[in-house]
Amino acid sequence: MTMDHFSEYKAIQNEINAALETYFTADCPQKELLDAMRYSLLAGGKRIRPLLLVKFCEISGGDRAAALPAACGIEMLHTYSLIHDDLPCMDNDDLRRGKPTCHKMFGETNAVLAGDALQSAAYCAVLSAPAVPERTAAMAKTLAFAAAEQGMCGGQYLDTSKEGLPVTEAELYEIHRLKTGALLRAACVMGVQCAGGTPEQVSAAEEYAMNLGLAFQIRDDVLDTISTEDELGKTIGSDAAEKKTTFVSLLGVEECGRLVHLHTEKAKAAAAGHFADTEFLCWLADLLADRRK
Fold first, then answer.
1. What is the pLDDT of residue 1?
2. CA distance 253 to 272
3. CA distance 130 to 65
4. Measured between alpha carbons, how far is residue 82 from residues 3, 63, 198 in Å?
5. What DSSP string describes 88-154?
6. What percent of the chain has pLDDT over 90?
7. Is 237's pLDDT higher than 80?
8. Of 16, 158, 176, 203, which is the most exposed, with the fewest CB atoms less than 10 Å away?
């Protein structure tokens, strides 16, 4: 069964990658800007957010093909956040997905503009989804809220404003509930919305995503401590260099391992009973909890 799930994961990932390849291909005077956008968008990655959107659409009774434009949109917005997160004024990272970061390849100005353009293009993609107009509008609103001051940007603000300052466990949870969790929640909820799912399914999707996001971030902090740059494909130790508190620096590796397991099990329990089939969601939660990169 595990191999079947992995095959499905790769199949959806390949569909998403093929769909992303169709964007930003036109010849225009802004070629270097498009190159910067495509460089970061097509640099690989797990495609977790678009994959979650597609799967939640399917298990809520929707069609995978109808979800692909919105899936591409959320990956564009995620990529914009990574480009800006890597900038010298933010996390100051030189490596992302095993390659030089966007600002290292194209300069800071072009990296900022590439992120801005991807953010705008994300909504064009979502709004082009062949769904009922009310569902399309709901997806766009969900994505906008997740990216704004009460979501991802709010989390980034809290993260940067706490550099060098003591942070409590509750504050750290709030930072990553927004910075990491908001877009994961949007992905799951948008999938349900694309299919016209029920309010109960939306609530279950939110609970699954919240716990998945916390497990993902805590595992990320552990890997940043125990892995090498070659293993992760990104800069390690940047949080320590910027004097940011992480789950590992606050709680230790052993306690973090316990919390990853706890939130993974909570995610799996949240989805149970609300959808046609949650086996893939449970498998994915376990996969991310045990990942090495």
1. 43
2. 29
3. 9
4. 30, 29, 32
5. TTTT--SEETTEE-HHHHH-HHHHHHHHHHHHHHHHHHHHTSSS-HHHHHHHHHHHHHHHSTTTHHH
6. 80
7. no
8. 203
Beta strands in 38-170 (DSSP E): 95-96, 99-100
Q: Which residues contact 259 (CB under 8 A, 6 or more apart)?
A: 214, 215, 218, 247, 251
Token pair of 200 as six digits: 């109960």
Tokens of 12: 């959806």
Per-domain residue ranges of the chain: 2-289
Residue with tokens 């995503």: 209
Residue 228 has pLDDT above 70, yes or no: no
Residues 91 and 85: beta-carbon distance below 8 Å? yes
- DSSP state for residue 278 in the 8-state scheme: -
Q: Residues with Cβ < 8 Å from 245, sequence gap 6 or more? A: 162, 166, 167, 172
Distance CA 33, CA 59 (A): 37
In this structure, what token pair is assigned to residue 40? 């970061």
Phi-psi region for residue 45, left (φ > 0), alpha (ψ -120 to 50) or beta? Answer: left
* pTM of the shown model: 0.93
Q: Which residues of 109-133 are buried (b: 16+ CB within 10 A; e: fewer)?
A: ebbbbbbebbbebbbebbbebebee
Q: Which CATH superfamily is domain 2-289 in?
A: Farnesyl Diphosphate Synthase (1.10.600.10)
Distance CA(103)–CA(99), nearest Å, equals 11
First to last CA, the chain: 23
* Structure token pair of residue 174: 């709030």
> Phi/psi at 69 (nearest 5 deg)?
-60, -45
The pLDDT of residue 44 is 87
Query: Beta partners for 96?
Result: 99
List the structure tokens of 124.
């064009």
| Residue whose pair of structure tokens reads 């956008």 in the numeric block | 37
Give me the pLDDT at residue 170, please: 95
